[in-house]
Specification:
Shape: flat
CATH topology of one domain: Rossmann fold
Largest sheet: 7 strands, mixed
CATH superfamily of one domain: Succinyl-CoA synthetase domains
Helix content: 40-55%
CATH architecture of one domain: 3-Layer(aba) Sandwich
Number of strands: 29
Low-confidence stretches: 1-20, 560-569
Distance between the termini: 85 Å
Strand order of the largest sheet: 9-8-11-10-12-13-14
Structural class: alpha/beta
């Protein structure tokens, strides 16, 4: 057949268009041919299982066994190496001893294989010899242009196409959840759990050690995958932080990303370092929280919540606020739900007068007349439906939770049908809790068929709602326009003044600034400080005392083991001239004994006003770079550990969200009769502090503790 020139042009166009549509990771998820290097017939071996999975689950492509010691594997002709195959495979699955993997990968790259999954183990977990092998693999990915997932990977499964290139006992159901994990053991457990609960996946990826393909690569891929509605991540080490956050921020605007991280406690973090997937660097868990909040990722604390959230967000609309109406046919489970709701940051909705009037008309006269709404143990399906419909129409309600217990005359299946019918007509989330066993199973199935998440316990359902609301707030933070803070730009004069201070310190071979220098820098960036006098001699101390009066705080201008900088505890406060002079003389003497570069003494008038001692500080994380944290300050700050971190630059919204994560915030807002301070001014102060951190990368650490906050003033 001879094609006309027009047809040739069209064919060429279609070829170019197909190449344009292809994703760089398609060879992992949609390969047209796969070579299994290390395929074997040995019983219970990894090579047999992986090859068998590929053969038994058609994916629209060809599978080739590669084994130099066998002519056939499971009845299929084998070849000694990849170059002997009749075509260049899109994907190679490598299951050979660790020492041979670099050579095998090099050969794959030479013949033009575009992607490889290394299931082989024996790398990072073996110490330096294994890490050397990983370095060789990393070098080969750059030199040969081959993309690699692993080593220590369980493999990849794509239930949408049927691909099963994994060391797994079964194939997951097809669904809309993209699952990514570093741990093969967690992947195997999740797979087994999903078969029991009939949870489906659009992709199932076990990363392993991430020598090449990173989180960001797969997040971007699943973000563009039409079959994936939500992304679930089990993470041990984050790898390339910038690319991870960039991908997560972009994708989370369109698809929920739910993350579970192991090693959030110091002990767990140390244990995670022995994992074959661990990075050398560790990150502060609170800093990771700040980063995830910044890019709209929802973090959960356990595997159950990981998939509960993925399932719920794919079925129900997100709540527009924290207010919930709880409906049930028994009060005890409703009370359990309320307790969990309040603890998780949710709020029990205050029903409007119109809602109360409608409920009074629809409910029996002996209903409880408040939220949670107890529709009584004799409630039939119609009463449930009326209560849910009225609650969903309430202007103060952002979501409804329906609790069903197996009372004598209750009908779980028909109640589920009625609730599902009402829920479909509204645009607010509805969560269900069908408490019981086998007798409720049909009702549970009906709710699931109608995309209503159903849970066995009320506290679980409530935790899910609270997480949904937290996720909504995270996304608002990504979109929200920050309030302008006057005086934060430009910093030309501030930079010049700070450079002068830093240059003087460097010229004196100092890496630590004095209290006086620190306050000068804070002042340059618009942060208020309490007036402080500096004295270099006892005569200057006497003159300063005449100006400050009493009580007065006296401390060393330069940090030392004897008198840490700005540690103004009660022991440093004096009410008489004699005590103050003795304290100053002692500080001078101690500073000289320690041969400190600066021996000056600071004197500050103590203002006796009711308020709070806070902490505002910055550090540099090994992975995330500079960050700041805010919380309860004073001498017990490290014991209370009531603080939250944020990454600069800071907006007023981000500052407010950071404060809200601290327990002391409720006191700052004047709850339960406590002293209320101007939190908006505190937000602006935090914005300026964030500007200082960004604008002065030479400052590795700064701590304002205490930051005094009273009704009328906030100052360092």
């Amino acid at each position: 057949m001879v094609l006309s020139p027009g047809v040739l042009i069209m064919a060429e166009y279609e070829s170019v268009l197909e190449a344009y549509r292809a994703h760089p990771l398609d060879m992992f998820f949609k390969p047209r041919s796969v070579a299994v290097i290390g395929a074997t017939e040995k019983e219970h071996s990894v090579g047999r299982r992986v090859f068998q999975n590929l053969v038994n689950h058609p994916f629209g492509g060809t599978v080739y066994p590669v084994n130099p010691n066998r002519r056939h594997v499971l009845g299929i002709r084998a070849v000694p190496d990849v170059s002997s195959l009749p075509e260049i495979p899109d994907l190679a699955v490598i299951i050979t001893p660790a020492e041979t993997v670099p050579g095998v990968l090099d050969h794959c790259g030479q013949v033009g294989v575009r992607g490889a999954i290394i299931i082989s183990a024996g790398f990072n977990e073996r110490g330096e010899p294994g890490r050397a092998l990983e370095r060789q693999i990393r070098e080969l990915t750059r030199n040969r242009g081959i993309r690699v997932i692993g080593p220590n990977s369980l493999g990849i499964m794509n239930p949408v196409t049927g691909l099963n290139a994994a060391y797994a006992s079964s194939m997951p159901y097809r669904g809309s959840v993209g699952f990514i994990s570093q741990s093969g053991a967690i992947s195997a457990a999740v797979l087994d759990w999903s078969l029991q609960t009939k949870t489906g996946f659009s992709a199932f990826v076990s990363f392993g050690s991430m020598v090449d393909v990173q989180w960001s690569d797969v997040i971007y891929y699943l973000g563009s995958d039409q079959a994936t509605k939500s992304i679930v991540i089990y993470l041990e080490s984050i790898g390339d932080v910038r690319s991870f956050l960039s991908a997560a921020r972009e994708v989370s605007l369109n698809k929920p990303i739910i993350l579970l991280r192991a090693g959030k406690t110091p002990q767990g973090s140390r244990a995670a370092q022995s994992s074959p997937y661990a990075c050398v660097d560790e990150c502060d868990d609170e800093v990771l929280n700040a980063a995830l909040n910044r890019c709209g990722v929802l973090r959960v604390d356990d595997v159950e919540m990981l998939f509960s959230m993925a399932d719920t967000l794919s079925k129900q609309p997100r709540p527009s606020g924290p207010y919930v109406t709880i409906i049930g046919n028994a009060m005890a489970p409703c009370v359990l739900a309320v307790d969990t709701l309040v603890a998780g940051g949710g709020v029990l909705a205050r029903l409007t007068e119109n809602t109360m009037a409608r409920l009074n008309a629809a409910m029996p006269p002996y209903w409880n007349r408040y939220n949670p709404v107890d529709i009584v143990g004799d409630a039939d399906p119609e009463r449930y439906a009326k209560a849910v419909d009225i609650a969903l129409s309430d202007n103060n309600t952002d979501g409804v939770m329906v609790i069903f217990t197996p009372q004598v005359n209750a009908d779980p299946a028909q109640t589920a049908r009625q609730v599902a019918k009402v829920a479909k007509s509204k645009d607010k989330p509805v969560l269900a809790c069908w408490m019981g066993g086998e007798s409720l199973q049909r009702g549970v199935e009906i709710l699931q068929e109608n995309n209503i998440p159903v849970f066995p316990y009320p506290d679980t359902a409530t935790r899910v709602f609270c997480s949904m609301w937290r996720y909504t707030r995270n996304l608002w933070s990504v979109y929200e326009t920050p309030q302008a803070v006057p005086g934060t730009e430009p910093f030309t004069e501030a930079r010049a003044a700070v450079s002068e201070i830093l240059n003087r310190a460097w010229s004196e071979n100092r890496s630590v600034l004095t209290d006086t220098e620190t306050k000068r820098i804070l002042t340059q960036y618009g942060l208020p400080v309490i007036e402080t006098e500096t004295a270099a001699t006892m005569k200057e101390v006497e003159a300063a005392l005449d100006r400050t009066g009493y009580p007065v705080a006296i401390y060393s201008d330069y940090p030392s083991p004897v008198c840490p900088i700005n540690e103004n505890t009660e022991e440093n406060i004096f009410i008489s001239r004699e005590e103050a002079l003795c304290a100053a003389a002692e500080i001078f003497e101690n500073n000289r004994k320690l041969n400190l570069p600066v021996v000056n003494v600071c004197l500050r008038k103590v203002i006796r006003a009711s308020g709070y001692r806070l902490v505002l500080a910055s550090r540099v994380d090994k992975q995330f770079g500079p960050y700041f944290y805010f919380g309860a300050g004073g001498p017990l700050s490290k014991v209370l550990r009531d603080y939250a971190a944020a990454l600069p630059p800071v907006t007023t919204t981000l500052a407010r969200r950071t404060m809200e994560r601290c327990r002391i915030y409720r006191a700052l807002k004047g709850e339960r009769g406590s002293i209320e301070i101007n939190t908006e001014e505190l937000e602006r102060l935090m914005v300026r502090f964030g500007d200082l951190i960004v604008d002065q990368p030479w400052i590795a650490e700064i701590e304002i503790n205490p930051l005094y906050a009273t009704e009328n003033r906030i100052a360092a």
